[in-house]
Amino acid sequence: MILALYRLQKKSTADVAGCCAEVVCDDHVPCKTCSDGNVRMYSFLEIVRNNFPNNSWSLWGKLYRSDLFDRVPRDLPSHLVMSEDIMLNTFLYKNCKRIALSDCRYYYYFRDGNGAISGELKPQMVRDCETAYSTMLSSIDSNNEIYGYMIGCKIQNDYFLINSIIRNQKCMDQFARLRHEILQNLKLIFDKKYAGIFSQKQRFGTLLLAVSPTLYKWSILFRRKVRGY
Length: 229
Description:
By secondary structure, the protein is α+β, with helices and mostly antiparallel strands. It contains 9 helices and 5 strands; from the N terminus they run αβββαβαβαααααα.
């Protein structure tokens, strides 16, 4: 993997080179390997505009130019168990001119259901996400074009958290706060400018969340029953 990323970085003269992951095992069920080999170049704005595509949010599967770390603030929150990767990458990407992302799966990821995302939802996870995104947003000028897209990325994380709360029936005291944060950004969610971040299905779900939180909860639980997650 390292050699492949090094070659990609040299060829593209990118500040960061990244690849996708192959889930080798998920609850002991072998997964199929697939690599297309397409490479796309991004700027930081394009990364955020597309809600951190192609695993660009992750720290794994990346080769970074070493001096990027010299410009990362030393007082970033530590000991986070959620969203720490996207937070650090945000500060690294801010100083990048070119980010090369390949859909080749050079990174082999063993997953058996005990990861932070797949495990039981805990209050610390919700707090850590809030800390990470607040730190990211506070580092960007609100007049910068990127700021609106970063708000969109935070709302996407709020969707993930609120749906996890419903599915797990944990941290229910955070439901109202997250719902409020989502609904106070209705104008942004329905703005065509942010079509790369929000799907039509999410926009419909947001309306349902606004009109009837109870029906929204039922829809998430029904989907879990039908799909198994």
